[in-house]
Structures are given as C-alpha cells and as structure tokens.
C-alpha cells in the first residue's frame, strides 16, 4: 500500500508487471485521455485493458478489507456523537469572554506604542536642533577665529579653519544666523584668496620652495586647486606665450615653426621646474603636494589658445606641402610635450583635456586629404584617357596608365604625403586606384570588342581571304626554296589604326604591341604590389597600432587576382590577331593534290612553302615582343596559337587524305571493271603516295617549328592526331 501524503489515502500496491504507474490516478491534473495516449505509446490497448481490470480487482479487494477493518467504528458512529452539541454550547461563553479580554489588551498595547514613538520623535527633533545649534556656534567661533588669524602669518591654519567653516555653512544652509553672517564669510574668503595669491606669486618669483609648498597645500585644503593653476597660467604662462607664439616670431625666426616650438618647450624647464619638484612624484626628496598638474591645466591650454588666436597660418591647408611639414612639426612638438609630463597618468589627463581635442581638430586633415586625392586621382584619370601611350624610356613601366598608377600608389605612402592620422583614407585611395585600373582594363576590352563588331558589320565578307590561293601560287607550293619565296606576305604583327569607312566607329584599334605592353605591366604589377605592401605599407600600419593585417593582405590579394583574371582575354586578342594571319595559309593544304596528279613531279623531299608563311607572323611577333613579354606569357600565347593551328591543320589534312584515298579506291574499281588491271611497270611512287609523302613531311616540319618556338609536341593535344594521320598515310603507302 502507498499513501498519498496530501490526502492521507492509501493506494493498494499492484503487480510490477502493470503497464502504468498507479500514482498517476492521484495527481491533481490527471486526465483520462492523456493517460490512455501515454500508455498506448508503450503497450497495445488490449494489454492496457487487461492491466486496468487486474488493478480494479485489487482496488475492490482493498476497499472490502478497509470496511471490514473499521466496521465497529462505522456501526458505533451515531452513539459516539450523542451529547456533542451540549459540549460545544458550554464552550461558547468562555471563548467570547476571552476574546473581549484579548481585544482590550491589544488596545492598551497600541496606545503604549504610540506614546513611545512620539517620545522618540521628540528626542530626534531635540538632537537635530542641538546639532544645528552646535554648528551655528561652530560657525561663529570659526569666523571669529579666522578673523583673528588673518592678521597674522598662520595662513595654513586659517585654511584648515576655513575648510571647517565651509562645511558648517553647507550643513546649516538657509538658517537666519547663516544668512546674517554671510558678509563676514565673504570678506574672509576674499582676504584669504588675496593673501594666498600674494604669497603664491611671491614664492614663484623668489622660487621659495617652502612658501610654494605651503600655498599649494592651502589651496588644496580649501579645494581651490584650479585657482592656483589658473593664477600660474595668467601671471606666468600667458605673458611668455604671447611673446613667443606670434606670426612675427615665425617670420623673424630662422628655424620658423620648429624654432617657435623649441622656445615654447624651453618654458617648462625654465619656469616650471620648482612647481614640478613640489607636485610631481619622485621629482624631489621633499614632501609632494598632490592634486596639481600645471603642465596639463595651465601651460597646455595657454599654448593652444595662443596658437589658435595668434598663429592661424600654421593650420592653413591651402598649400599641401607646407601643411604636411607644419603638421609633422606640430606632432613632434606634441610628442615632446607629452614626454615632459613625467607620468603616464599626466599624459592621459593631457589627452583627455578639451584643449587637446581643440588642437587636434584645428588641423584640417580632411581638406588636406581632398587636395591630395584630387592630385593623385586626377592624374590617374587623365592618364587613363591616353593610357596605352608609352610611359617613356626613363620609366620601368611600358604604358603611361601603369606608370601613373604606380606613381600614385607610391605617392600615397611617401613620407612627403603620408600622415598617420590619414592611414585609413590613404589605404582606401590606394585600393580605389587599383580598382580603377582594373575597371579601365575592362572598359578597354569592351571598347575593342565593340569596335571590332562594328568593323566586321561594315565590311564585305572575307571568305575569299581564307579560300584557295591562285593557280600561280599553288604551282609554287611544290616545295623548295622557290616555293617559300613565292608565299604571300602576312600582315604586320602590330597593325596600324584604321578608320571604319561608314563612320560607325572612330576609336582606334588596340595594337598587338600595346596589348603586349599591357600584359607586361600587369605581370609586373602582380609582383610589385605585394612587395610594396610588405616594404612600405605594412611598417606604417604596424606603427599605427594595427598588428593584425590579415584583412589588408586579403584586399591586396583580391586586387592582384582581379588583374590576373583580366589577362586571358587580352591574350586572346593577341592570339586571334596572329591566328587570323596564320590561318590564311592552312587552306592551301587542300591544293597539294593538284601539284602531283598527272604532273610527273619528283617525290617530295622538303616541306611545303606554305608552312614558312604560316609561322612567319609568329616569328615576327616573337622577334619583336618575346623579350618584353616574358617566358610565361610568351609560352601561353604560343601554346594557344599552335593548339588552334594544329586543330585546323589536322582537319584540313584529314580531308585531303580521305579524298586521296577515295580517289585511289575509285580508280582501282574503274580499272578492275575495264579489265585493264595489269602489273604496274612504272617505277617510283604513285601520285597519291607523293601527296601522302608531302603531307607526312609537312606534319614533321610543323612539329619542328613548334619546338623552335618552345612548344613541346606533347603539350598540344591535337598533335597526336596529326601524328596518327601521318602513320595512317605511311600505312597506306606501304600497303600496296
């Protein structure tokens, strides 16, 4: 049996095999539907029904046992309740009397508590008035005592007493006696300050450490530290700075601004030495007076005020070179002044001072940057208009655009332009210049594509340029030196600008030489920009306190990658131009059969003349630009060109060999039909074999030409097909 503590009801225990917990029935939030759903997750409904039936029988048995156990009490219940009403009635009267007595005691206690609280309030009021009276007596006593001591030299005692007086007056504010005595207090204040000022100034003039220490302690006691600092600023700092900081001094000094700042810094050891000995920790062996910072609160504000009012020319940003020099000079002066502060806490107070902020914002750095921005960005924009012009022999770059871009990047970080406060802006300007150069490359490419589209649309079909050569030219292709000398002369590798006749485009085309220069400069940029960052930019970034430059490196890499991504499409312009010139000779392969059919020519021993004509544009390009272009770009261009040439050559050669084979088979069938097939007594190669032999020699010569240009045969995927055609041609020659 288990017992529900809240209700005192005992539940009979069931077998452990039940699929539910019997305590669930006794919970206040028991829900039949929820109970059935939870049980169904564990067992089928049939099992739940059987277990509930088992437990129902257990409950019935337990109920019967309970009734049997307390049967006698159930039967005698009515007998046991006889006389209970009379007993309850007898208790009613005594309980009522007890209630009245308790209420009367409670009332008496409340009255006593109120009386005690009233007495306590009266006592507190008496104590308050007594304290107020004591303060008034102290005020009167302090005033009389101070008035007596003011006539003597006990200034420090007077200050202590005056400090007490100030405290008492503050606590007793508004009382009639305080209002009445206020004139006397004001007179005391004036007399005390006058006495302190006189003693302080005399101590400064005579450099009397004892008097100055006493005055400074007194100012600290009466909470007038700022008054002492302002007094020093007004009587000592201001006259000196007005004499030194002026436009006249700048004009008369041989050192200019540096000389003026040196004179200003000389004020500290000359006129502040004694005060620094008294107020700075570790400056002297005597007692230190805390709470003062004359350099921060007296000297520096006066310097800034005079610089702002008396020398406005040093802040003028109109001439960026002069502004840059003066700004660096002022920052060096500021660093030296901070070093004179003595402690890091003093430096922090200086940087938090309003005059420090005033001095910083007085320098028009945004205006200076805007002027530099217009100089650098304007030069780049002007250069991009004629960006493909030569940069000149004195430059390390080929193009005027790249030369100006690099000059702008160097200028941003040059010591004559760079300012640490403009690090973020100059970095952004550097990225903008590189991005503008990439954008210029894109625009250059798009303009060239548009010009070519308009040029093609305005000209007649050029199919005749790629067709067969004339009969005279074909006759010369039989082989040998004469054939080579008769081959057509290709167009120059750097075509001259030409105007479109219909006027649809007036833009000059980009020459191959200009694209080569662009590729050379782009490759050099990819190398030099990361080096420039490491050698020039990164030290300045670290000096500014930024030691995690991962993001900056990513920006550099993005710009370098952007330049690299633009190079393939410019290489394509070069390769297309050269391929156009080279491809004109490939179609002449299809005219080789005419040279040997029924001509009784000797068997070929040399390559055809069209091959020399086909590689001549490549030779001209390589001789003119290979040195400047570099091995990487040159090898890529040659590989692209030869891959395309080999594919075209393979296609045309395959057609010729197929045609020869079909012709040969057709002749064989014709002879067989006519019955004229006899033993061939003709010596030497047949015309078809001569054609195959010439093609085999041409394929081998093409491979040699590729190697002379530094292109490996294996790197050109289509050349293996050409070799397969050559092997097939050999097989056809020997199979007869």
UniProtKB/TrEMBL annotation:
Membrane topology summary: Peripheral membrane protein
Polar residues: compositionally biased ranges: 456-475
Domain of life the protein comes from: Eukaryota
Record's protein name: Conserved oligomeric Golgi complex subunit 2
Domain COG complex component COG2 C-terminal: 362-699
Coiled-coil annotated residue ranges, if any: 106-136
Family, as annotated: Belongs to the COG2 family.
GO cellular component term of the entry, any: Golgi membrane
Region (Disordered): 456-506
